[in-house]
Structures are given as C-alpha cells and as structure tokens.
C-alpha cells in the first residue's frame, strides 16, 4: 500500500480496479474471524444469536453464541489502484442457496476447514466446485484439532493436486494474509496458464 489515505474509511480516488474474493466454509470455522482480522475497515457483519431451534441441526462448540445469517464484508486496499473485497458466506447449510449469489463475479474462494469436523467441509468444497469457483483450502487451527499430514488431508478432502492447502490462525492478521496470498498466487498462476 503506497498511501494510508483509506484510514478515514474511504477508498482513495485513484482506485480503478476491484477484486472480489469469497471466504467460505461450514458453520463456526472462523470465516467472520478471518475477515475481521484482515479488513482495513470495520467489517460489515450480520451476526445473530443462535437459538434453541438450531439444536441438533447446527453443530458447533457450546461457547459459540452467534452466527452469520447473510454475509460478512471486508475490504483490503492492495495499492493505489486496486482494492480487494472479501465476502464471507453464512455457514449454515440452509443458507447454501445464497452462495450462488455471493460468489457472483468472485475470482476465487478461500475455503476454511476445521480438522475436528472435516466431514462438514465435503459439501462446501463440492458446492464451490459445482459453482465453478476456484479455491484454496486454509486449515484454521483450533486448539486440540488434529494436525493431519497435508497429503492425508488432500486425500480425505479429495482435492486436486494443484489446490493449495495452508494452515492459518484466522485470528491473526499475518497468518490470515498468508492464506489469502496462497489463494491469490494460485489464481494468478492459473490465469497465466489459460491459452490466449
Ligand atoms: N482458537 C481459535 N479460535 C478461533 C479461530 N478462528 C475462529 N475462532 C473462534 O471460533 C468461533 C467461531 O468463529 P466465527 O468467525 O464466528 O466462525 P464463522 O465461520 O464465521 O461461523 P458462522 O458464521 O456461524 O458459520 C469464534 O468464537 C472465534 O473466536 C482460530 O483460528 N483459533
Ligand atoms: Mg460467520
């Protein structure tokens, strides 16, 4: 970033290009946390209290009290001319039909995975494939989560050999940025390989 004039919340007038990235994943995997750690503006969140109606349907840690019901939105100014918009999906399966609209125009997605609940990511990754959204996988490291070998994870999640897999702590800005950079590098390389 060659200027800090976005600090007031407004984009520099020199910005000409916007890139959209989606942060996806099942319930409670850390999507809102990752966008909050990365966003240079106060992110737009749509958190609502989880209620007893979700018992037996929404499987999360007992300490989690709120959930995203529409989307999260954050912003990162990359340089004087380019900005990145981060859109977070809701995690509850009943909101999956919304993803089709949320991913519209996105260059790619960062799919967060919790190794304590790997099976909950199967539908998410399959859905991104169906929507034709290229993605990188970020393992969000929760305390006590199994630290599987990356090759084992690739095979368990049935990933393509080129799909990046990185480990991150969504609460940490630098760590979240590394995960995002892995996705962007992947998208850039894939774009170079497309025949002209
Ligand atoms: N230890 C640890 N806790 C985390 C990490 N990321 C998120 N959390 C915690 O996990 C809980 C869920 O995080 P959220 O960011 O709300 O997850 P989400 O994916 O947005 O959840 P939904 O919107 O309900 O699908 C919060 O209490 C976070 O503080 C992490 O990397 N490590
Ligand atoms: Mg959320």
Task: Tell me what you see in this structure.
The chain has 196 residues and is an alpha/beta fold. It contains five helices and eight strands, in the order E-H-E-E-E-E-H-E-H-E-H-E-H. The strands form two sheets. A six-stranded mixed sheet has the order 4-5-1-6-7-8, with helices on both faces. Strands 2-3 form a two-stranded antiparallel sheet. The radius of gyration is 17 Å and the shape is globular. Bound molecules: guanosine-5'-triphosphate (GTP) and magnesium ion.
Quick structural summary:
By secondary structure, the chain is of the alpha/beta class.
- Pairing-aware structural class of the strands and helices? alpha/beta
**Total tally of structural domains:** 1
3D shape:
globular
User: Could you tell me how far the N terminus lies from the C terminus, measured between alpha carbons in angstroms?
Assistant: 31 Å
List how many beta strands DSSP finds. Answer: 8
Average the pLDDT over all residues and give the rounded result.
90
Helix share bin: 25-40%
Q: What small molecules does this complex bind?
A: guanosine-5'-triphosphate, magnesium ion
Q: Secondary-structure element sequence?
A: EHEEEEHEHEHEH
CATH topology name, in short, is Rossmann fold
What is Rg?
A: 17 Å
* CATH top-level class: Alpha Beta
Report the biggest beta sheet as strand number plus sense, adding barrel if it closes: 6 strands, mixed
Output the strand order for the largest sheet. Answer: 4-5-1-6-7-8
Low-confidence stretches: none
The CATH homologous superfamily: P-loop containing nucleotide triphosphate hydrolases
Number of helices: 5
Relative strand content: 15-25%
What is the CATH architecture descriptor? 3-Layer(aba) Sandwich
